[in-house]
Amino acid sequence: MRAAVTVSLIPEVRQGPFVFTGDLVQACQRAAALGFHAIELFPEDPEAVEAEELRQVLDDCQLSLAAVGTGAGWFRHQLSFTSSEESIRSQAVDYARRMMDLAAAFSAPIIIGAMQGKASGGLNQATALRYLGHALFQLDEHAEALGVTLLYEPLNRYESNLIHTLADAATFIQGAGLRQVRLLADLFHMNIEESDLPGALRRAGPLLGHVHFSDSNRRAAGWGHTNFPPIIQALRDIGYDGYLSAEVLPLPDAESAARQAITAFRQWVGSPAAG
Ligand SMILES: [Mn+2]
């Protein structure tokens, strides 16, 4: 397992669970200095990031790109896969595809979180899920062509009303015949929705593709009341070898949150070689 930290370039969501915000070069330098292996990037838009510039910064800092978030599609453009308007749904898929093109240049997956939307405005749950399945199916095909996976993140009940648990997400993914989609297990959302975190991770098994390494209060691991050792043990037991990515609030400040996240990683996971 390897340690990643979130970097947001989206001006609209400075209040979000992003450790570093604003300046990509500075963020990468801090992430590397603290010992992270990778960053998880939330670009302003797919075209706002020059792939060559990003590659240069990552190379200079000896960092990998763990994943690329698509949240700006919703926060900046209100694009959602479950909009009641067909044109918005298709723009949303197009936006995510372009983000995937950027991420695939680094063999990184994109994350589908906020863009999944919710059943609202007269749209019922069954229809919303059908729209979501249709969007993911189109992205699944694009991912297969590019040779990458994509990550679907179940959100807690206060953020979406579609799918809340890893088990329901796995059923949905398998039922829709999606081949490139993996589960993103966010330990903060899971703390609200799951009855047994290690058990849910074990059942996710090989479908698990990414972990948001966050405590119960969305602060850095170790600064809430989540019991991490059994969670790490479950990840080891299923042979998970992906990222633990610190998607946490920058509290009391970005540097302290990042330092605590990597300290917790070293305490509970150890060196990357110990996996
Ligand atoms: Mn998350």
TrEMBL record:
Pfam families per record: AP_endonuc_2
GO molecular function, one term: isomerase activity
Keyword Isomerase applies: yes
Keywords from the UniProt entry: Isomerase
Keyword Ubl conjugation part of the UniProt annotation: no
Coiled-coil residue spans: none
Xylose isomerase-like TIM barrel domain: residues covered: 29-267
Record Gene3D superfamilies: Divalent-metal-dependent TIM barrel enzymes (3.20.20.150)
Protein name per the record: Sugar phosphate isomerase/epimerase
Species this chain originates from: Thermogemmata fonticola
